[in-house]
């Protein structure tokens, strides 16, 4: 009897343990489902935000497309297409044209550019006539270059400097419209050749011509030597007259 009672008590304990484990597994499953739903909510909101921004993307692109291109500031409105600046058109250039001869190129206006023909009819496609030559082969009057105030214009041999040249708006040419070029030093500091020569003839014995040109050491030498007893004065008259002696800063006379 005692053995049967003990086995019954053991079976009851095993059944209670099994029931407890089953309830624990059910509770853990509910907790996991709650966690997954909570974690999925931020992801869903993030997905919504991404989709909302993606739907607004065409709106921003539309705003960007309405911006005015920078080349429009140089493009006259409703003018002749053949007289538009090169920045306002796109041309099919033919580099096999004969150098120095007149060539015809097919061109098209850029977006937002409006121009007309001789009959005042708006057009997009047109032709232009230009001389077959590269931009760096143009005449000096057809481009503008930067100046240098550091090189010496009065030197032997005459110095050159690296300049950046830009073709004028109404000139058409082949190649790059901005190009480097070696130019002679041609800047001036405001000194007049006639004034220097007049001072050399009248007051050269006192070094006035050298003082005017900014050559203080030579001016003091002439002043204290009375123009080298007249010899230095005569030499300076000849040197300034032929332009061999110039301003101390190396510039040209005006």
TrEMBL record:
Q: Where does it reside?
A: Membrane
Q: How does it sit in the membrane?
A: Multi-pass membrane protein
Q: Quick check: keyword Nuclease in the entry?
A: no
- One GO CC term on file: membrane
- Asked if the keyword Glycoprotein belongs to this entry, the reply reads yes
All residue ranges annotated as the TM2 domain in the record: 190-237
- Entry keyword set: Glycoprotein, Membrane, Signal, Transmembrane, Transmembrane helix
Principal subcellular localisation of the protein: membrane
Membrane-spanning intervals of the chain:
191-211, 223-245
In which domain of life is the source organism classified? Answer: Eukaryota
Which family is this sequence assigned to?
Answer: Belongs to the TM2 family.
Q: What is this protein called?
A: TM2 domain-containing protein 3
Q: What gene, per UniProt, encodes this protein?
A: Tm2d3
């Amino acid at each position: 009897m005692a053995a049967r009672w003990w086995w019954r008590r053991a079976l009851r304990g095993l059944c209670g343990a099994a029931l407890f484990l089953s309830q624990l597994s059910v509770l853990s499953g509910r907790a996991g489902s709650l966690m997954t739903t909570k974690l999925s909510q931020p992801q869903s909101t993030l997905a919504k935000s991404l989709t909302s921004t993606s739907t607004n993307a065409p709106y921003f692109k539309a705003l960007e497309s309405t911006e005015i291109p920078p080349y429009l500031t140089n493009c006259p409105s409703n003018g002749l297409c053949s007289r538009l600046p090169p920045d306002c058109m796109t041309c099919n250039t033919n580099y096999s044209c004969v150098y120095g001869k007149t060539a015809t190129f097919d061109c098209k206006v850029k977006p937002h550019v409006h121009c007309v023909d001789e009959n005042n009819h708006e057009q997009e496609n047109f032709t232009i006539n230009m001389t077959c030559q590269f931009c760096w082969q143009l005449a000096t009057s057809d481009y503008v270059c930067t100046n240098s105030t550091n090189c010496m214009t009065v030197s032997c041999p005459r110095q050159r400097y690296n300049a950046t040249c830009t073709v004028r708006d109404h000139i058409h040419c082949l190649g790059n419209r901005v190009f480097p070029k070696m130019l002679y030093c041609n800047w001036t500091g405001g000194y007049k050749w006639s004034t220097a020569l007049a001072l050399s003839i009248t007051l050269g014995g006192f070094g006035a011509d050298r003082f005017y040109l900014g050559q203080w050491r030579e001016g003091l030498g002439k002043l204290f030597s009375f123009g080298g007893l007249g010899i230095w004065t005569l030499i300076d008259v000849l040197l300034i007259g032929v332009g061999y002696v110039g301003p101390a800063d190396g510039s040209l006379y005006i």
